[in-house]
Amino acid sequence: MDAPRHYVAGMSEETLMTAEELLRLNLPDKRTELIRGRLVVRDPGGARHGALAMRLAYRIMGHVEAHGLGRVYAAETGFKIESAPDTVRASDVAFIAKSRLPQVEPRGYPGWAPDLVVEVLAHDDHPAETLEKIAQWLIAGVRLVWVVDSEKRTGRVYRTDGSESLLDSNDALDGEDVLPGFACPLSELW
Questions:
Q1: What residues have CB less than 8 Å from 179, skipping those under 6 apart?
Q2: Pairing verdict, β 116-120 and 144-149
Q3: Is the torsion defined by CA of 50, 5, 35, 79 positive or negative?
Q4: What is the pLDDT of residues 19-38, one digit of tens each?
Q5: Listed residue (12, 3, 56) closest to 34, CA to CA
Q6: Which of 37, 41, 53, 92 could form a disulfide with 85 if both were Cys (CB 3.0 to 4.6 A apart)?
Q7: CB neighbour list of residue 168: distance below 8 Å, 6 or more residues apart
Q8: pLDDT for the residue numbered 45
């Protein structure tokens, strides 16, 4: 994934960064991730992206809290899913089942993958980069990935077993065995 790195003075294209260095990096008003040690910097998502991510997070959070299922993490929470070189990915919403939560959460990036990841496509997302991110989430152990496209009003569901489903505006996001009992019709998100 090629991205401009001119945001960080003195950093060359060959410079690899660690998750710890990323945690200390201060780039206001930018979204950052680390992909195999390489810093990726992007502009924040737009209004439509933020509103849709919030609507989904609100619904997921309500369901998780009502049923004591685990913890929901807000947009841009980083998870360290690869090491040496480090990869830190951030989703728009993440869920971790109660049985997998540690007694004390780490101060930095958790060294584990969530159970559910929600990616809301932003104005600058490219299909190949999105597929690469989905693959990294699944390889790291994410059991269910939802990708929601507000422009097309569709969704895609990716599972650990390699299966994929395309959803149109008449379908619903289903928590399956990852988020039992959760269902959100796509038509209610627009």
A1: 60, 63, 64, 69, 95, 115, 116, 144
A2: parallel
A3: negative
A4: 999 999 988 888 899 999 99
A5: 3
A6: 37
A7: 153, 154, 186
A8: 84
Bridge partners (DSSP) listed for residue 158: 145, 164
Give me the sheet containing 93-97, strands edge to edge.
Answer: 70-73, 93-97, 116-120, 144-149, 154-159, 164-167
The per-residue pLDDT for 5 is 39
Nearest-angstrom CA–CA distance, 137 and 146: 11
Do you know the residue count of the chain? 190
**Average pLDDT per block of 10 residues along the chain, 190 residues long:** 46 81 88 92 88 96 98 93 96 96 90 96 86 96 96 95 96 98 95
The pTM for the full model equals 0.90
Angle, alpha carbons 161-165-169 (nearest 5°): 155
Which three-class secondary structure state does DSSP give residue 135? helix
> What's the token pair of residue 133?
């991110």
Amino acid found at 56 = L
Cβ–Cβ under 8 Å, residues 39 and 32: yes
